[in-house]
Design goal:
The complex is a heterotrimer. Chain A is α+β, with helices and mostly antiparallel strands. Chain A has a single domain, classed as SH3 type barrels, CATH 2.30.30. Helix content of chain A is about 25%, strand content about 40%. Chain A has a five-stranded antiparallel sheet, with no helix packed on it. Chain B folds into three domains: about 140 residues, HypD, alpha/beta domain 1 (Rossmann fold); about 150 residues, 3-Layer(aba) Sandwich (Rossmann fold), CATH 3.40.50.11740; about 45 residues, no CATH class. Chain B is about 40% helix and about 15% strand. The two termini of chain B are about 35 Å apart. Chain C folds into two domains: about 120 residues, 60s Ribosomal Protein L30, Chain: A; about 160 residues, PurM-like C-terminal domain (Phosphoribosyl-aminoimidazole Synthetase, Chain A, domain 2). Helices cover about 30% and strands about 25% of the residues of chain C. The chains are: A alpha+beta, B alpha/beta, C alpha+beta. At the A-C interface, β2 and β3 of A face β9 and α7 of C.
Chain lengths: ~80, ~375, ~325
């Protein structure tokens, strides 16, 4: 059971957040989350619970690692 | 500002495919990578990932579908509960069609049982609060991604003083079975595409023993197409460089320690227990049972019911398919007797089971 | 396993529905072969052709963003006639009402039906009304039947797709099914997804006028979605279709709901949408004409008939991979895995 969707937090009320993706809003419990969450953060939501918060720096790092392969690929073409 | 759509970029996927081809160019060996997460099974089929990889890289599906590995007796138990008067069975959609020994929840619903699909166990808790005269039983099936959600719902039900909310658990944990599979020489697993979301909970350190003690490269990989390709590229690179490490590809959501708060909740609500995996057998300490502290919410302990003798379907090869030993198309029942409309085993009926995915998306 | 039960999946338009039709209903009632199964029956009498069709509407909830069961019932039958190239002439309406149903709601639904019929230029000429005890029907069930006439001699049928044909759709996919589901499940959407229920007959007249000879197949992808409908046509015409996932028009919120619930938009029901198979030389012209019609703003070419034989549908995915597209099995269930 692993379907989890990254969604953006639009409001927080105690331990419950409203998050949205592509214009769809869902309520999620923050009870399982270790980190502080602010409006505007992305969280991974599964079965009504936020289970992890997006590390933006890591996300950008991952994309740049992937982009390296793109450049290398073009060189060998 | 990050745009998460990037992880579906055709260009990035193309570049990664070219890199993988470059790394494997000239090699005559086949690298076999197993994924153990239903979301990966789906993603790989949905995006046609296999068609983008060179012949030297082979992806196989392992027991990543918790519904598929749940013993038939659990379905029979749910069916028995559904037949009791005054019960509302609440479940994720995945469980509805799984065939038990003689019936399924979908069939019971057609016969008048109150079986409802929910998107979160919290929906079941709210249902219990609104229907104090009914016993609301939630089917707790899933790996470590879902177990915290069920644990959370039990804690919330306890806090609200509910006496009519129950969970029938069949939770399983993933790292130990991975080790069982990797020690099978017939499978020849060269690397693991480790789950995305289970890893977010348990942390990538959980796979260290596979890499360090058993020499199997492990990469905790995301489920978007570029993530999957990147994870495969990282595994290929490990093999080419003669390494066996644990690496994190999905670093934007997965850390080495994982979600320690969720882990603490799991330890509070659940106890590790030996667990039967359909098609594989009993794997020690690979399951989660509700701890004594919350025994009042354990449907199996609190609600007495007679469950029929479990009977596996004849000729069903789900066990071998789940271990990655038999490809869906090689099962003699695939596509003939066993189809998504008339499933024999769980691999076909669960929407993320290997056979269902193979049937729907092709090779 | 008890196979005597009729399951919800038997009504979902997918494989189970086809099985029920092919194994029991059609052989018992009429024996029409697969190639002849189109949205409406075309009857010929002394040189004249008539189209005849029927449909029942049991949607829940009966009121949803973008419409209600009433306009759905009129538009659906008008469209079935339009899909075989007929001009809708007259409709009959059968109402089955549950005891206790609101008269005010009934009036709203009837007004919507009148409105839809007027818009489509079709008359409601016959009808019937029954009331059943509380609990024996879900508020209101509607059956509509329609007859249509032909102003041309073109043969438009699911068996007519030819290699090289381009596959066109007049707009975004999944709107109706997701609008209904979102209302039913109480999902909170930023911008409400509205059902795309609409009468397509005027668009079809435009297209036939533009390039009638070049239009081989018309079908509206209702239950079972675009995937199921294309698979049906691939089987009827015995061809292989290749779709281009990137070209599929999709609204953001529909994509979002599908992502959150684990649904595939290719399998979600549509209403005011049609698929057209057009010979390659006329495809751009037909697309342009579609776009000029109020219901065709987001029209696109989404694939083509790539080979004779096979009866298969495949799709080039967003990232350049290739995958097979099968028919919907039973109901599409939301998944958590």
């Amino acid at each position: 059971m692993c379907l989890a969707v990254p969604m953006k937090v639009v409001s927080i009320d105690n331990e419950t957040a409203i998050a949205e993706v592509d214009g769809v809003k869902r309520e999620a419990s923050l009870m399982m989350l270790n980190e502080e969450v602010n409006v505007g953060d992305y969280v991974l939501i599964h079965a009504g619970f936020a289970i992890s918060r997006l590390d933006e720096a890591e996300a950008l790092e991952t994309i740049s690692l992937m982009r390296e392969c793109l450049e290398l690929g073009q060189e060998t073409l | 500002m990050i745009n998460l759509e990037e992880f579906r970029s055709r260009d990035l996927v193309k570049g990664l495919a070219a890199k993988i081809r470059e790394l494997t160019a000239g090699r005559t060996d086949t690298m076999t990578f197993m994924e153990v997460c239903g979301t990966h099974t789906m993603s790989i089929y949905q995006y046609g990932i296999r068609s983008l990889l060179p012949p030297q890289v082979r992806l196989i599906s392992g027991p990543g579908c918790p519904v598929c590995v749940t013993p038939i007796g659990y379905v029979d138990h749910s069916v028995a509960f559904a037949r009791l008067p005054g019960t509302i069975i609440t479940t994720f959609g995945d469980m509805l069609r799984v065939p038990g020994s003689t019936s399924s929840l979908m069939q019971e619903r057609a016969r008048g049982a109150d079986v409802r699909i929910v998107y979160s166990p919290l929906d079941a808790v709210n249902l219990a609060e609104k229907n104090p005269d009914k016993k609301v039983i939630f089917l707790g099936v899933g790996f470590e991604t879902t177990a915290p959600a069920i644990a959370g719902s039990i804690i919330i039900a306890a806090a609200r003083g509910l006496e009519n909310f129950f969970v029938l658990t069949a939770h399983k944990t993933i790292p130990i079975p991975m080790q069982v599979l990797s020690s099978d020489p017939e499978l020849g697993i060269d690397g693991y595409i480790c789950p995305a979301h289970v890893s977010a909970i348990i942390g990538a350190n959980a796979y260290r023993f596979l890499a360090e003690e058993h020499g199997i490269p492990c990469v905790a990989t995301g489920f978007e197409p570029a993530d999957v390709m990147h994870g495969v590229e990282m595994l290929v690179r490990q093999i080419v460089e003669g390494r066996s490490d644990v690496e994190i590809q999905y670093s934007r959501f997965v850390t080495w320690e994982g979600n320690v708060k969720a882990q603490a909740v799991l330890r509070d609500v659940f106890t590790p227990v030996d667990s039967a995996w359909r098609g594989i057998g009993v794997i020690p300490q690979s399951g989660l049972e509700i701890a004594d502290k919350y025994a009042a919410f354990d449907a199996a302990k609190v609600i007495p019911v007679e469950v029929e003798e479990p009977r596996e379907a004849k000729g069903c090869q789900c066990g071998e398919v789940l271990k990655g030993k038999v490809a869906p198309f090689d099962c003699p029942l695939f596509g003939g007797v066993c189809t998504p409309e008339t499933p024999v085993g769980a691999c076909m009926v669960s929407s993320e089971g290997s056979c269902a995915a193979a049937y729907k998306y092709g090779q | 396993m008890d196979t005597d039960l009729i399951l919800l999946g038997h009504g979902s338009g997918g494989k189970l529905s086809h099985q029920l039709l092919d194994e029991l209903i059609i052989p018992t009632l009429s024996g029409i072969p697969v190639a002849g199964q189109n949205d409406a029956a075309v009857l010929a009498r002394s040189g004249e052709r008539l189209a005849f069709t029927t449909d029942s509407y049991v949607v829940d909830p009966i009121f949803f963003p973008g419409g209600n069961i009433g306009d759905l019932a009129i538009n659906g039958t008008v469209n079935d006639l339009a899909m075989v190239g007929a001009q809708p002439l007259a409709i009959s309406v059968g109402l089955i009402l549950e005891e206790g149903f609101s008269r005010k709601e009934l009036q709203k639904i009837l007004l919507a039906m009148r409105d839809a019929a007027d818009k489509a230029g079709v008359s409601i000429v016959a009808g019937d009304t029954k009331v059943v005890p509380r609990g024996k029907a879900d508020k209101i069930f509607i059956n509509t039947s329609g007859i249509g006439i032909f102003r041309h001699s073109l043969n438009i049928s699911g068996a007519e797709a030819k290699t090289g044909d381009k596959i066109l759709i007049n707009g975004t996919i999944g709107d109706h099914g997701i609008a209904v589901m979102a209302k039913r499940e109480g999902l909170d959407l930023d911008t409400d997804i509205a059902s795309d229920s609409a009468a397509l007959n005027t668009m079809v007249s435009d297209l036939l006028e533009e390039a009638g000879e070049s239009i081989h197949v018309l079908r509206d992808p209702t239950r079972g979605g675009v995937a199921t409908t294309l698979k049906e046509i691939a089987v009827q015409s015995e061809v292989t279709l290749t779709l281009n996932e990137e070209a599929l028009p999709l609204k953001g919120p529909v994509k979002g709901v599908c992502a959150v619930l684990g649904l595939d938009p290719l399998y979600v029901a549509n209403e005011g949408k049609l698929l057209a198979f057009v010979s390659p030389d006329a495809a751009e012209r037909v697309l342009a004409r579609m776009k000029r019609h109020p219901l065709g703003g987001d029209a696109a070419i989404i694939g083509e008939v790539t080979a004779a034989g096979g009866g298969r549908v495949q799709m080039e995915t967003l990232v350049g991979g290739m995958r097979a597209v099968e028919m919907l099995s039973g109901e599409q269930l939301p998944r958590i895995c």
